[in-house]
Amino acid sequence: MENSLSALSPTVAEKAQRLIELLKSFGSCVVAFSGGLDSTVVAKAAQVALGEKALAVTGVSPSLAARELDECRKLAELIGIRHIVIETEELSNPAYQRNLGDRCYHCKSELFGKLGDWAARFGMAVVVDGSNKDDHSDHRPGLKAAREKNVRSPLAECDFTKGEIRELAKYWGLPVWNKPASPCLSSRIAYGEEVTPERLMMIERAESFLREHGFATLRVRYHRGDLARIEVPLEDLPRLVESPLRQTLTQKFAEIGFKFVTVDLNGFRSGSLNNLLPAESLEILSRRTGDVFAAVETDE
């Protein structure tokens, strides 16, 4: 049977069974579906537990790369879960545009609000997300938004760690089982620099160019003055700066709109822009919201 869990390690099998039973207890649910590892596992579990009473919903805005949306559609088809795409409007929120340490809070608040509306429209009992036990050991902006919107987190409630989620995803044959974090395009813009559709498009086009030239793990960071900072794994640095790719790259990035192109000699680091966020900014946000934000990249 598809939901037979005997081949899993005992701990993961027990948690997976709890996960399925928890989702069954909801009666129906809307899954916040980003196509990342965590939300894909929740979507699969929801389909196993609830069948047609589960609905995966992907929020789309200029901050979502087109290839990520394509992957969401393919994954939903593979899982067999009903899937719809909705538009979110976080970029119309001045607090989101300002791009301070609470940007992710405003994004998730917009998303979960829209998902709540769709849950009511489809008669679904609850909205669920993909946050897990490891996420809940830290203070994250999206978690505060989830609490405010009464979103449930089945993976966290069943004590799943990231490694256990990967094991379950691999067992279920989900191709994202080893997918690295893939945060939204806005996470590439240095804190304090305004998030605009134009800048997001520049980043998406620049990263697409690098992928077309064989770079799988990468980030193109946007800094003040239309400066691009490219991050790739250290082993890929020589190939990045060799001719003729270097000339082609700088010409392409100039066409895209970047005035300066730099390469980070530290290599790829998820969340490297957090180094630019001063501690006093987090203290101010904490006083404003009563919570502490950690401006970290996540795949959900």
TrEMBL record:
Domain of life: Bacteria
GO molecular function: GMP synthase (glutamine-hydrolyzing) activity; sulfurtransferase activity
Keyword Metal-binding among UniProt keywords: no
CDD domains in the record: LarE-like (cd01990)
UniProt domain NAD/GMP synthase: residue ranges: 26-97
SUPFAM superfamilies given in the database record: Adenine nucleotide alpha hydrolases-like
Entry's EC annotation: 6.3.5.2
Keyword terms: Ligase
Active site: C184
InterPro entries (UniProt xref): LarE, NAD/GMP_synthase, Ni-pincer_cofactor_biosynth, Rossmann-like_a/b/a_fold
NCBIfam families for this protein: ATP-dependent sacrificial sulfur transferase LarE (TIGR00268)
Annotated protein name in UniProt: GMP synthase [glutamine-hydrolyzing]
Native source organism of the sequence: Thermogutta terrifontis
Taxonomic placement: Bacteria, Pseudomonadati, Planctomycetota, Planctomycetia, Pirellulales
